[in-house]
Amino acid sequence: MTKKGSIFKTIVGYFNQHPMGVLGWIWVTLIPPLGSLIFLWNYEILEGSRLDSPLNILIYTGVAGLMMGLALLPTTFLAPASGFFFGWIALPFLVIAYTLATILGYTLGLKANASLLEVLFIKHPQLKEELEARKYKEINLIFFVRISPIIPFAVSNFLFASMKIPLKKVLIFGILGMLPRTFIAFGTGVFANSFLGAKDTLSSPTQWAIGFVLLIIGIFGIYQYIKKKPGST
What we know:
Elements: H1 4-17, H2 19-42, H3 54-69, H4 75-86, H5 91-112, H6 116-123, H7 125-133, H8 138-147, H9 153-162, H10 167-191, H11 195-201, H12 205-226
Helix pairs in contact: 1-6, 2-5, 3-5, 4-10, 5-9, 5-10, 6-7, 8-10, 8-12, 10-11
């Protein structure tokens, strides 16, 4: 059985030799909440904005993709903002922006943690066997990690990249997993009377209940990925 403590020491040793990896994980963890605060102080700059031309749509999609891909804003913050300021017309372009952001975030995560898996495999060969045995479950892991409200989009991009899960799988099943939360948050923005009102609605008992249900679904799905087959050692 692979010892968790020894794996942790290996990871710490890896990051001691690869400070960019440490900075990357710190960035995707701390910067999105900070970006949300900055946006709250300056959200008025979007008032009067419209997606009424191909150029505006292109700018919106590109900027939204960069903001999420570089972990400058969390997806669950950008979704209600897009719904409030632009309406339902923005929804398909937000999904396209998610796709661009996934490619960018995954690529950065791959560069920041390029050899992490190889280092772990060298010192813990059983880990490679365990991951290979679960390879057929990767699509489940992607879907349920994305649907979980407690695992940030930027963090999951780094996680999938570090595990070397194929980008094609991350794109297809990751978007499917994000759609429920995105639709709910986006719709909240569309029907809100004010942007701050939309933000407050996301903390309502109903939203907490929905979030709890999605959390349970996410935990169940991730557990199904982690647990071993009956009879395995």
